[in-house]
Amino acid sequence: MKEAIVERVSKDPYARFLGIEIDRVGEGEAEVSMRITENMMNFHGAANGGVLFSLADVAFAIASNSYGQTAVGINVNMNYMRAGMLGDKIIAAASEESKNPKLGLYRMIVRNEAGELLATADGMVYRKKEIFA
C-alpha cells in the first residue's frame, strides 16, 4: 500500500513543482523534505508561510492515505514558530494521533535541517469508502 501512495504523490504536479521529496512512509506516518528557493520568499525576506503549510500538507496526505483508503483533509490548523530562510532544507513529519473508520487525526512537525522547530499543525481527514491500493 505504501508503494501506491508514493506513486500517486510522485505524480502530483504541485508537489513536483515545489521540489518535494518523499523521504519515509509508514502506516499512518510520513516524512517529506524540500529546499527553500528564492521564488518561495515573501516581502519579509523569509519563506512564505504557504510553503511550510504545503510541505506539511503533503506529509499529511501521504500519512493519511498510507493504508490505501482514500482520505481527504477536512481541517488543518497550523502554528508558525520560526521562519524558514533561503536555502534551508525543511523537513515535515506527519504522524497519526487517532484513527477510526471515518476520521483520522494527524500531527505535523516542520523543522529545518538544523532541527529547529518552524511550525506545527494538526489535521483531520475524512475516510471515504474508495480503496486505491
Description:
This is Phenylacetic acid degradation protein. Keywords: Hydrolase. This protein has 133 residues and is an alpha+beta fold. A 6-stranded antiparallel sheet has the order 1-2-4-5-6-3. Strand 1 and strand 2 form a beta hairpin. The termini are close together. The model has no long low-confidence stretch (mean pLDDT 96).
Computed structural class:
alpha+beta
Uncertain runs: none
Count every beta strand, where a strand is a DSSP E run of 2 or more residues.
Answer: 6
Tally of contiguous helical segments: 3
InterPro entries: Acyl-CoA_thioesterase_PaaI, HotDog_dom_sf, PAAI_dom, Thioestr_dom
Keywords: Hydrolase
Domain Thioesterase: 44-118
Protein name: Phenylacetic acid degradation protein
SSE topology:
Elements lengths: L1 H9 L2 H6 L2 E6 L2 E7 L13 H17 L3 E12 L8 E11 L3 E10 L4 E15 L2
Antiparallel strand pairs: 1-2, 2-4, 3-6, 4-5, 5-6
Features:
six-stranded antiparallel β-sheet; 133 residues; alpha+beta; HotDog_dom_sf; globular; 6 strands; 24% helix; single chain; 3 helices
Concise description?
Keywords: Hydrolase. The chain has 133 residues and is of the alpha+beta class. The chain has three helices and six strands.
